[in-house]
Design a protein that fits this description.
about 325 residues, alpha/beta, 5-stranded parallel beta sheet, two-stranded parallel sheet, about 10% strand
Length: about 325
């Protein structure tokens, strides 16, 4: 090997790599506070940090309810703050969203958690946490909370920007080009009484999923217990009431849960998950939304569109309407 190549490999190339790594780190630091726009959760958070909204009711929940609110407006404008997400961010994400909302927007009188029971038992794995929690909620207090309560969180870890160009530079650059988040997600349609629902039959594969759902245990994750404890503290401090609803459940799943006492045991554990001092929880609303025929489902969790999602939207509208007035 001649001297030119030796000089290149031993001096010039390492220096160039160090320079690139340094430049990437500077760029990442400059873009560190840019609100991302990868998914609905990012866009919701970008609006919350901007602030200025006042609504008497905040609604959180998983994708079953989010799916409905993407298409339907279930309250008059300014009456309900839609903070629904998918299960990937879980109750922890709902807690962080509500805390951000209360910091920059008007006070609420009611918090409604409308979700599947499984929402309370979910702990994200490392890959899911990275996309829907660690890289979304990046304030110091949020990072500390996740480090304490989420074993799969990498929020407190650090990775050089040169090894993570997509997340630390690529996505922030794309976010700079995205439209400004001017509002929370609100469905364009009003739910319609009398709209026909999708009829039977149900695909055999969906029926198997529904039965399999009923055979799984319902649990309360330790991180969810911690989040509920902190939600109660927020409720006491900000003087709002917490209401818990189950999203519609297919009747076969519900029958299996009841026969095995799975649901009864779950409700007892969920009630015990809230601290004894928490007086702001309405625990009698579990099945206000009710069960639905198996053929109402497009999979084990989500309703068929548009008829059955419209029916859920009508029930949500009826439930939320008196809360927006008191």
């Amino acid at each position: 090997m001649d001297k030119t190549w030796r000089r290149f490999l031993l001096i010039h190339l390492p220096l160039a790599l160090v320079f690139l790594a340094f430049a990437a780190e500077l760029a990442a630091l400059a873009l560190n506070d840019v609100p991302l726009r990868r998914h609905d959760l990012d866009r919701t958070l970008a609006f919350l940090d901007k602030g200025g909204m006042t609504a008497p009711v905040a609604l959180v929940g998983d994708s079953v309810t989010q799916d409905v609110l993407k298409n339907y407006r279930v309250a008059s404008f300014g009456k309900v703050a839609n903070l629904t997400t998918n299960q990937a961010s879980g109750v922890v994400g709902a807690y962080f969203l509500l805390r951000r909302y209360l910091e920059t927007n008007g006070p609420i009188r009611h918090l409604v958690i409308a979700s599947t029971p499984e929402f309370f038992g979910y702990t994200p794995d490392r890959a899911t946490s990275k996309v829907y929690l660690d890289s979304v909620f990046r304030r110091g207090d949020e990072i500390d909370w996740m480090a304490r309560h989420l074993p799969n969180s990498g929020a407190a870890s650090w990775e050089p920007a040169v090894f993570n160009l997509e997340n630390r530079i690529g996505y922030p650059l794309l976010a700079l080009l995205a439209p400004t988040a001017n509002t929370l997600p609100v469905g364009p349609e009003t739910p319609q009484p009398g709209l026909a629902v999708e009829p039977p039959p149900i695909p055999a594969s969906v029926l198997r999923e529904i039965r399999g759902r009923g055979e799984k245990n319902l649990s309360i994750a330790p991180s969810v217990v911690a989040a509920l404890d902190d939600l109660c503290a927020l409720a006491e401090e900000n003087r709002f009431t917490i209401h818990i609803l189950h999203a519609p459940v297919p009747e076969t799943t519900l029958n299996i849960w009841r026969a095995r006492k799975t649901l009864n045991d779950f409700h007892i554990r969920l009630g015990n998950a809230f601290p004894p001092s928490c007086q702001s929880v309405g625990m009698n609303d579990f099945f206000t939304m009710g069960s639905v025929p198996d053929y109402a489902m497009r999979n084990s969790d989500h309703l068929r569109r548009p008829g059955w999602t419209n029916r859920y939207a009508l029930k949500l509208e009826a439930y939320l309407q008196p809360l927006t007035e008191h």
